[in-house]
Every structure is written in C-alpha cells, then in structure tokens.
Amino acid sequence: MELFGAIITLLGAIFLLIASIGLVRMPDVYNRLQVGTKATTLGTILSLIGLAIVIPGWSGKLILLIIFVMMTNPVSSHVLARAAYYIKLPYTSRTVVDKLKVSDKVLNVEMEKRYGLESKTLKVK
Amino acid sequence: MVNIILSTALAIIIISIAITMIRFVKGKSSVDRVIAFDIMTIASIAMIAILAQLLGRIIYLDIALVYGLLSFLAVIIIAKYLEKSL
Amino acid sequence: MKNFSITFIVLMVVWILLNNSFRLEILIPGAIVAFVISLFACRLCNVFVDMKLTPKAFAYTFIFLGVFFIDLIKSNLDVARRVLTPSLPINPGIVEVKTTLKSKFARMLLANAITLTPGTLTVEVKDESFFIHCIDVQDDDIEGASKDIVKKFEKYLEVIYG
Question: Which of A16, A42, A110 would best serve as a mutation to test chain C binding (most C beta carbons within 10 A)?
C-alpha cells in the first residue's frame, strides 16, 4: 500500500516536469498559462494524494492543501490571463480566432471608465 | 523502497524547478516571469510535502500551506498592478 | 440564518482538518472563534445563499465532482501529449460562450471548472458571456462552442444552484 502511494507521488512529480518543459516550449503567454495551470494542478494533487496514502495519519492537512490548491490555482491563472490581455501582449502567429476583439470598442469604453486612459486597438501579430 | 521512490520524485521536482528557471531568466514579458514564479511555488509546495515525509515532521505541512497562501496573494497583487487598477 | 450556519460549519471543518484531532480543549476554542467570525462576517459572504440543501443537490454535487476529476485527468493527458510532440500541435484562439446560470457562486465554479478542463482557459467574464482561450479551436461560433465546453458542467450546476 505504501509502495502504491509512493508511485502516485512519482507520477505527480512527472506531471510537474511536463509542466516546466511546456512552459519553456510554448510560443506565447496564453498557451504557457494553459500548460502551467493544468499540469501543475494535477501534479500537486497527485503528489499530495500519494503522501496521504503513505501516511494516513496526515490526511487532514493534506486534504486541506489539496482543496486550497484546487481553489486558488485557476483563479490566479485567470487573473494573469486577463492582465496579459489588457496590457495587450502579442499572440503567436498560429492564433486562428479572437472573439474578444470583436467587442473591442466596448472594451475601450470600459477601460476608459475604469482607468481614465485611452487604449489603442489590439494588434494581432 | 518507499524512501528511494520518494527521493526520486524529489529529484524530479528539483529538476523541473531548474527548467522553469530558464523561462524565468529568458522572460520577454513580466507576465511570463510571474507565471514561472507561480509554477515554481506550486512545485515547491509538493517538494516541502515530500520533505516532510522523508524527515518525519508534520509541522512542515503548515509551512507549505502558508507558502501557498502568500504566493497566491503575491500573484493576485502583481496582476492587479499590471492591469493598472491597484 | 442559513448563511450563518454554513459559514460556521465551513470554518469548523477547516479548524478540525488543520488540528487533526477531536479533543475537547481544541474543539471549544475553535467553536468560539468560528462563532464570532461567522457572527460578524455572515453578511459579507452571501455566496452560499443560492445553494439548495436537498438530497438531490447533494447527489449531483458528487456526480459533478466525479465528472470534473475525469475531465481533469483527460485534459492533463491531452496537454502532456501536445507538449511532448516535437511539432507542437496547437491551434489557439479565443472563443465566446454563453451560460444560463444566474447565481454568482455557480458562475465562479463554472469558470474554475472550465479553466481546469481540456485546453480551455477563461480570460474574461462579462455578464453571461465567457471569453475562453482554447488551445485547439474546433468550432468558433457561440452556440457550437457553448455546446462543446459549457453544457457538460452546466446541467449539474443548474440542479445544485437552481
């Protein structure tokens, strides 16, 4: 049983390694966020579940850590994606569609209302 | 046997933090660096939990919890600052 | 009242998990502190008001968690495949989807679930439209994308939050 938990922990570590490789290889900010959020969330959850199987007495704190990681990780990645969109970081050239740009005029009005500054139109590079 | 596998997992996590460091140095934009920082913290939460098992101290899990809390706040505040709404 | 009791129960569960014991001298201070906090903060955190407390809602919560975990694992295998393929098979883009959920907390859960499932990342939420960055765009009109991405979670959340 302990061996099984240790192997699950090893699997989680491998997912963390995949996340870091993807972070180096991906071409633009949004794709890096995609890899960074998903692979690290599953990697951490698997590592902590494996440890909870190895030592069942610690499972209370480990469950608290798992819930915490699951609640905060998507929120922080969403906030970073929105910040990247509003400061107009360029896309990769392989991007096919941008529906948010269609309502760019609405976005400009809202940016002016929120920050009082005039924002230029987004350029797809 | 369990300790050997857990040590291997620890080594893999340290290697992944080192690879993330490449993106942290190369960067290009500040958001890239914040993402790299976020991934390094989450990997180190897993690292601290494994170290707690290897050294047999439950108190290290509290450190992991506080570490995650602080990094979440830091990421949110940096993103707010970049959006110029702070 | 419902608000107050749910806040109290959540705080107590966190306290017990943190201390990992049921001894009386740990439970009593925790209960006092949780009572005071939920007395003052129950007006602020009104996210739980829309939650229904029927048996059917509980059953659907567990089904939702199950569907969510299966999707989480599928998405990770998919992303791992894309990262490790030498030619990087990505086809990214931002699409718009519409949701029919009314409750704020349900929308937050939906956005989190979307962020953690295959190749999708919520970029912006405006009223009832979600703007989602996909790593592999299949269908770029509103109805098709909504059917692909949102529907599988929405039908459970609709039962839980009404």
Answer: A42
Q: Is residue B13 part of a domain?
A: no
ipTM reported for the complex surpasses 0.90: no
Q: Is the residue at B44 inside a domain? A: yes
- B71 part of a folded domain: yes
pLDDT digits (tens, 9 = 90+) for B41-63: 988 898 998 898 889 888 888 89
- CA torsion angle for B22, B14, B38, B66 (degrees, to 10)? -150
Residue A123 — pLDDT band, cuts 50, 70, 90? very low
Q: For residues B44 and B67, what is the distance between their CA atoms, to the nearest angstrom?
A: 9
Residues B57 and C149: their CA atoms lie apart, in Å, by: 43
Domain boundaries, chain C: 2-41, 55-161
| Interface residue C93 vs chain A (CB under 8 A) | yes
Residue B83's Cα: distance from chain center in Å?
24
Any domain includes B46: yes
Interface test with A, best of C76, C96, C149 (most A CBs within 10 A): C76
Q: How many domains does chain B have?
A: 1
How many residues does this entry show for chain A?
125
At C68-119, the pLDDT tens digits run: 888 888 878 888 888 888 877 777 777 777 777 777 777 888 888 888 876 7
Q: Is C73 helix (H, G, I), strand (E, B) or coil?
A: helix
